[in-house]
């Protein structure tokens, strides 16, 4: 894609702080550095989001996540945890429309990062939960 910042990074038209590269993926530091070591893992092939992945590409990309996670853990022994995030589409906070996975090291509760999962369990009856599950199950191909 001609106007994609991540494609330009892969093609070395724009500099990056590379941490890993092979024939399928490129990993580099996110310039925002939410926490020290915040890394992005991207497919070299341009795909917009998870909905564009073929099974083979997904396997290649997601197989690299533990490799990068272990590298972060070794590089930063003070790291106490790791968030792995993949935002898809604008409403889900995707801001660069070349699929990417964030690996965000966590060092303590005072990190400038948070995620909130609301608990809406009481909003759905067991029957409604089963209907939701079946609706999704019918679409899994």
Automatic annotation (TrEMBL):
Transmembrane segments: none annotated. Pfam families: HIT (PF01230). GO terms for biological process: nucleotide metabolic process. The active site is at residue 100. Residues 5-115 form the HIT domain. PANTHER family: ADENOSINE 5'-MONOPHOSPHORAMIDASE HNT1, HIT FAMILY PROTEIN 1. This is HIT family protein.
């Amino acid at each position: 894609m001609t106007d994609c910042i991540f494609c330009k990074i892969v093609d070395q038209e724009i500099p990056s702080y590379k941490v890993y590269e092979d024939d399928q993926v490129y990993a580099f530091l996110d310039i925002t550095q939410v926490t020290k070591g915040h890394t992005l893992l991207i497919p070299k092939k341009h795909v917009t989001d998870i909905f564009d992945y073929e099974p083979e590409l997904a396997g290649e990309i997601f197989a690299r996540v533990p490799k990068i996670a272990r590298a972060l853990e070794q590089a930063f022994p003070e790291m106490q945890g790791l968030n792995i995030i993949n935002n898809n589409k604008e409403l889900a906070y995707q801001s660069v429309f070349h699929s990417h996975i964030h690996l965000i090291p966590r060092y303590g509760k005072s990190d400038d990062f948070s995620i909130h999962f609301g608990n809406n369990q009481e909003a759905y009856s067991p029957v409604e939960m089963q209907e939701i599950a079946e609706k999704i199950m019918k679409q899994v191909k």
